[in-house]
Amino acid sequence: MPVRGLISHLDLNVSDPRRSIPFYGLVLEHLGLRRIEESDDRAIWAQQLPGETWWGIEVRPARNRPPRTHHERDAPGIDHLAFHAESRADVDSLHEALVAAGYPVADPPAEYDYSDGYYAVAFDDPDGIRLEVVHEPTANP
């Protein structure tokens, strides 16, 4: 049975799918999502949640808009998208994989005072969309 209120899917419009699909493949597959569909200009990853609920992310070509050139924290729209990590080591290993693949990291892994034990890495996709992967031990009440 679907769970009410969880994210169903997220569609990301990118300026160059050939550049963005490998980036999102590295990040999303590290986090446990499976690539379930791919063509020359789009790809879809999905992950099963408890029960029979699924959620997914599609990367597809943008239309009729100039690409962003960098992340702007206070600009209109979504500031960033954050994903849970299993552990601090999970955050660190993604950081290492991003660096090894040549992707720039905006904020290397560090502790933040948002909540006890909050430990995160932040990085931008090729179009300047900010992503964060966080281990937050107190996230589950």
Explain what this protein looks like in three dimensions.
The chain folds into 2 domains: 1-61, 2,3-Dihydroxybiphenyl 1,2-Dioxygenase, domain 1 (Roll); 80-141, Roll (2,3-Dihydroxybiphenyl 1,2-Dioxygenase, domain 1), CATH 3.10.180.10. Helices cover 19% and strands 35% of the residues. The chain is α/β, with parallel strands linked by helices and 141 residues long. The chain is built from 2 helices and 8 strands, in the order βαββββαβββ. It is globular, with a radius of gyration of 15 Å. The strands form 2 sheets. It has a 4-stranded mixed β-sheet with strand order 1-4-3-2, with helices on one face. It has a 4-stranded mixed β-sheet with strand order 5-8-7-6, covered by helices on one side. It has helices at residues 17-30, 88-100; strands spanning 9-14, 34-38, 43-48, 54-61, 80-84, 105-111, 119-124, 130-135. The mean pLDDT is 89. Strand 3 (43-48) and strand 4 form a beta hairpin. The longest helix is centred in the N-terminal third of the chain and has 14 residues, at 17-30.
Précis, in short:
This protein is an alpha/beta fold and 141 residues long. It has two helices and eight strands.
Residue-averaged pLDDT, rounded?
89
How would you write the strand order of the largest sheet?
1-4-3-2
Write the element-wise H/E pattern from the N-terminal end onward: EHEEEEHEEE
Query: Structural class of the helix and strand makeup?
Result: alpha/beta
**What is the helix content?**
10-25%
Q: What is the tally of beta strands?
A: 8
Name the CATH superfamily classification of the largest domain: 2,3-Dihydroxybiphenyl 1,2-Dioxygenase, domain 1
Report how far the terminal alpha carbons are from each other. Answer: 22 Å
Number of helices: 2
Low-confidence stretches: none
Radius of gyration: 15 Å
* CATH architecture label name of the largest domain: Roll
* Count of separate structural domains: 2
Shape: globular
Major sheet characteristics = 4 strands, mixed
- Looking at the structure, the CATH topology of the largest domain is 2,3-Dihydroxybiphenyl 1,2-Dioxygenase, domain 1
- Note the quaternary state here: single chain
Given this structure, which CATH class of the largest domain is correct? Alpha Beta
What fraction of the residues are assigned to beta strands by DSSP? 25-35%
